[in-house]
Design brief:
This protein is of the alpha+beta class. The chain contains 9 helices and 4 strands; from the N terminus they run αααββααααββαα. α1 packs across α3, α5 crosses α7 and α5 packs across α9. The longest helix has 14 residues.
Length: 262
């Protein structure tokens, strides 16, 4: 089989496949008569052939696939005007921690974020197919170890975790948010800079409604008020003076030594 025919077969298979195809799957097209190096070289030639087109051939974690170029996404979105799913800041932060620190336990995530993580947040990411349990840490309670999946890399258009942008701290969340274009969280009302930021996943109950999973907040305590002292009682109200039947009430209590008061 000549190179032209082999490249045409690869091109047709990749266009018609709804999922990425790995090299071992592409070799099946030729009954393994074509080596891995040859298939990879033909794929690179196809990438060059499609350079000036609106569709590009890329390699992701699960294999090779054709996809539209990011620059054309605003136009393609007009075919589907419905808004994509939106994720909260808490979901994106949790996903970023797993992506950059995996494998991690739920306790590790809570230590990094500084707040408790609602179990519904992890379930939401698991249902999306972005994380999975890959084992358990050999410690008390044997907590589950979470890591990202191939689906996570495919959705971000990455071939491996090494292609994640280098970041730390708050930049981690921004990196994942930029990769998950279209999955931004709704705009939240402004909060004081010193208040802990936390939000729940869409459709989930408030964190306080889930014992053990709720994130706790602490009200500020006045610096000049001791923690152990009871609250001061309100000042006693002056006793009311009832008017007498003979005239208006006096301005104050009567003096027992006054002869008129007897």
């Amino acid at each position: 089989m000549n190179t032209v025919d082999a490249k045409r077969i690869l091109e047709t298979a990749l266009i018609c496949s709804p999922q990425p195809l790995a090299l071992r799957e592409l070799r099946v097209l030729f009954d393994d008569a074509v080596g891995v190096d040859t298939v990879r070289r033909l794929l690179e030639e196809l990438q060059t052939d499609w350079t000036q087109r609106g569709v590009e051939l890329v390699q992701v974690a699960s294999g090779w696939r054709f996809q539209s170029r990011p620059a054309l996404r605003p136009y393609l979105d007009r075919l589907h005007p419905e808004k994509p799913p939106r994720y909260t800041r808490a979901v994106l932060e949790t996903l970023a921690i797993i992506a950059y620190r995996q494998p991690v336990t739920r306790g590790d995530m809570e230590d990094i974020r500084g707040v408790a993580i609602n179990s519904l947040i992890l379930k939401q990411i698991e249902d999306r197919g972005w994380i999975e349990v890959i084992g358990h840490r050999d410690t008390v309670g044997r907590p589950a170890l979470f890591a990202t999946t191939r689906q996570f890399l495919d959705d971000l258009g990455l071939a491996s975790l090494d292609q994640l942008p280098l970041a730390d701290g708050a930049a981690v969340e921004q990196a994942v948010r930029a990769s998950l274009d279209g999955f931004d969280d709704p705009v939240a009302p402004a909060v004081p800079a010193d208040a802990p930021a936390e939000s729940s996943a869409p459709g989930e109950p408030p964190a306080a409604a889930l014992p053990g999973d709720a994130e706790t907040s602490r009200a500020p305590v006045a610096e000049d008020a001791p923690l152990d002292s009871p609250p001061e009682p309100p000042p006693a109200a002056a006793p009311a003076v009832l008017p007498s039947e003979d005239g208006p009430a006096d301005d104050g209590p009567s003096d027992p030594t006054d002869p008129k008061a007897v």
